[in-house]
Specification:
alpha+beta, Butyryl-CoA Dehydrogenase, subunit A, domain 2, Butyryl-CoA Dehydrogenase, subunit A, domain 3, 6-stranded mixed sheet, 15 strands
Length: about 750
């Protein structure tokens, strides 16, 4: 008698998935993190000690030891409790920001941002935005002044960033808060002229900030000089009462990131010293002489740090969601196939591989792009810091600035969109359990959604990138020097390139160059045609906005693929590089499949070759599925950071899920609303219901209607019988024998 073999536990299943991977997980992780130092720092931040599973440290998270960084109960906290816990974290982080190097602290905050986006944002408002505004806009003496007053240690100044207004967001040049110079007192008067100019969405303003970097239209001697930045005190640092003329309120609960106290600010003729205007680029003298920067582009630098970090955050947040989804898909079994007595792992279904494997490839591709972009940003920042008037490298530095600005705009837009889509697809791939708040997908989605609209609405940023591409096409047609990111526009015959049918990384790269060049050319030609028809430059740009958007999208996807391809081709050959090349090929070919209309339109691939692309994507998904669990292990995210029972490293999915649900929802000893609501409902007396039907004689009327229907049916049957008799007599007259049976009729 054959007995069915026992079903392996989820923990045993995940252990089997990790058995004998064809690469070293730690070496792969080092490559993904850019260096061994970065990975070691990340592990240090997560843990001090722990046990090893295979090639991955599963560590007791360091931040989990601090009560303020508890995450398991975060789904059941109120808005006020979340905000209070966010502030509890500040004290522990201030120590690190004042004692670690900038690059080390940035890596620390990047990790904390994956675990707790609300705190990352609130802390980032103080350090990334407020301090960033000072670093990019203040003179050296001004920066020293504010540093001496405690900006770095938050001991004297807690800053916020007051740019966005109720009626203006992406259009920074259109902000309506005013800063009018008063030469008599050597002050600027900050004022909110109407409701639409109210500063809105200001993180930290509602209850924690003492000062704000306020963006306002500068008016000197009646003349407007555009938006400048002013440091304005909001609250008394001793009593925390609002300063005269400052009105602040709370904008309330949001879709996500409730740990941030977003508020609104109105200024009623608030005076600040002239020295509180940040004057690194534009200066205003004691007698009101305004000196503008020789190159307005130099102010771009302040915008790029946030965009750059959001590309990395998109990759990391997508990796967090995918770690959960892939591990869950490996242990979840549904339906037996064929003679197999075991139900099939979700990850073994080809359609499930199609759901997740391309998203894994995309997250890895964005990660390598983020590393490249960070290096580009650091080089550009160093160049700007060392720039002097008359510098012979001025043109080269400005080109680098323009490319970083345009590239970061497109990457911010399309990477944040891709990550938000990834989180929701991962949620759906986990079925019903993905809808539970304890899966962490709902909070991940709600927290990440804002990335698509802050620091520039994604559609607007895409159009900025498209504008730069239109300009680059013009430079290419004039044979001018092109920035590295758009150098493909100058490749001879790129517009008419054809596939060599190999689907190699080089072939796929040429495909993206070809299609991107064609859509950029189309946008540029539309722009020129509108100019020739008499439109202004701005009008012409708006008329070709859809083509600019498409150009930005295809250029950015191709750029991400190119950054990933360059990264893997620079690596030493080995098992880890081999798997990364497969992942790279999957990303490039999957995106070709997603955007296949353009590849067919411009003739790079034939329809038959597109069929080959689909087969190649199917095959790559199956190959990467075989190593999917160790691949996501290389993302190096601890259980504490993931904060989802569905993605537990050891595979104890159901045990952990059940335990968390029980712990977070204890059964009350007394039902909270039985006496008030349920008991009266159960024990209520049925009210006397009048028989209105009897009063109107409805039942008698219905009986009459029934009798009429029955009489009509009888008449109908009688008519049928008469008709049949007549027909029989007619047949009898014409047929031999004169007799007709009913069957013959």
């Amino acid at each position: 008698m054959a007995f069915p073999r026992p079903k392996p536990t989820t923990m045993e299943t995940l252990a089997m998935e990790r058995a004998n991977p064809p690469f070293n997980v730690r070496k792969l992780s080092i490559k993904m993190h850019g260096s061994e130092r970065s990975l070691i720092l990340k592990e240090k931040f997560m843990a001090e000690s722990g046990q090893r599973y295979g090639a991955l440290h599963m560590l007791t998270p360091q931040i989990a030891r601090h009560p303020a960084f508890k995450l398991s109960d975060i789904h059941d906290l109120s808005k006020d409790e979340l905000r209070e816990r966010t502030m509890e974290k500040f004290a522990s982080m201030v120590y690190y920001v004042t004692n670690e190097s900038l690059d080390t602290f940035s890596l620390r905050m990047q990790l904390i941002g994956i675990a707790d986006p609300s705190f990352w944002t609130r802390f980032g408002v103080a350090y990334g935005l407020f301090l960033g505004a000072l670093r990019s806009g203040a003179t050296p003496n001004q920066l020293s002044y504010w540093m001496d007053r405690g900006v770095l240690g938050l001991n004297g100044v807690i800053g916020c960033f007051a740019m966005t207004e109720l009626a203006h967001g992406s259009n920074v040049a259109g902000l309506e808060t005013t800063a009018t110079f008063d030469p008599a007192s050597d002050d600027f008067v900050i004022h909110t002229p109407h409701l639409g100019a109210t500063k809105w969405w200001i993180g930290g303003a509602a209850s924690t900030a003492t000062h704000a970097a306020v963006f306002a239209q500068m008016i000197v001697h009646g003349k407007r000089h555009g938006v400048k930045t002013f440091v304005v005190q909001l609250r008394d640092t001793k009593t925390f009462t609002l300063m005269p003329g400052v009105t602040i309120g709370d904008i309330g609960k949001k879709m996500g990131r409730d740990g941030i106290d977003n508020g609104y600010i109105q200024f009623t003729y608030v005076r600040v010293p002239r020295a509180h205007m940040l004057m690194k680029h534009t200066q205003v003298s004691r007698d009101g002489v305004v000196t503008e920067p020789p190159l307005a582009q130099l102010t771009y630098g302040a915008l790029l740090g946030g965009r750059t970090s959001m590309v990395a955050d998109s990759s990391n947040s997508a990796k967090k969601a995918l770690t959960v989804a892939v591990r869950y898909a490996a242990v979840r079994r549904q339906f037996a196939q064929g003679k197999n007595q075991l139900e099939t792992q979700l990850l073994d279904y080809p359609i499930h591989q199609r759901r997740l494997m391309p998203l894994v490839a995309q997250a890895v591709a964005m990660g390598f792009t983020a590393l490249k972009l960070q290096h580009m940003y650091e080089d550009m920042t160093q160049s700007l810091d060392s720039l002097e008037p008359g510098d012979p490298n001025m043109d080269e530095i400005l080109d680098k600035l323009k490319e970083t600005h345009a590239t970061s705009a497109g990457l911010k837009a399309f990477c944040t969109w891709a990550c938000l889509d990834t989180i929701d697809k991962c949620r759906q791939s986990c079925g019903g359990h993905g809808y539970s708040v304890y899966s962490n997908f709902p909070l991940m989605y709600a927290d990440f959604a804002v990335q698509c609209t802050w620091e520039g609405d994604n559609t607007i940023l895409s159009l900025q990138a498209g504008r730069a591409l239109v300009g680059a096409w013009g430079a290419a047609t004039r044979k001018k020097r092109l920035a590295p990111g758009v150098a493909y526009l100058g490749i001879p015959n790129i517009l008419s390139s054809k596939s060599d049918d190999s689907l190699s990384l080089r072939d796929v790269q040429t495909a993206w160059h070809c299609v991107a060049a064609n859509v950029v050319k189309k946008a540029a030609e539309e722009y020129v045609s509108h100019l020739k028809s008499g439109k202004s430059k701005d009008e012409a740009m708006e008329r070709c906005s859809q083509s600019r958007f498409i150009a930005a999208k295809l250029h950015t996807i191709g750029y991400i693929f190119g950054m990933y391809r360059e990264a893997v081709e620079e690596m030493e050959e080995g098992q880890e590089t081999a798997v990364l090349k497969k992942v790279c090929a999957l990303y490039g070919l999957w995106q070709v499949e997603e955007q296949q209309g353009y590849f067919l339109k411009y003739g790079y691939f034939t329809p038959q070759q597109m069929d080959k692309v689909q087969v190649a994507v199917d095959d790559l998904c199956a190959e990467i599925r075989a190593v999917a669990v160790p691949l996501v292990d290389a993302f190096a995210l601890s259980d504490h950071i993931i904060n989802s029972p569905l993605g537990k490293f050891d595979g104890s999915v159901y045990e952990s899920y059940f335990a968390q649900v029980q712990a977070s929802n204890p059964t009350p000893k007394v039902h909270p609303y039985f006496d008030r609501l349920i008991k009266p409902l159960l024990e209520r007396e049925n009210a006397l219901i009048e028989d209105t039907g009897a009063e109107m004689g409805l039942d008698d009327e219905l009986e009459e209607m029934k009798a009429e229907r029955e009489e009509a049916e009888k008449e109908k049957e009688k008519a049928k019988r008469v008709e049949a008799k007549v027909r029989k007599e007619e047949y009898a007259r014409v047929l031999p024998g004169g007799k007709v049976d009913d069957d013959e009729e």
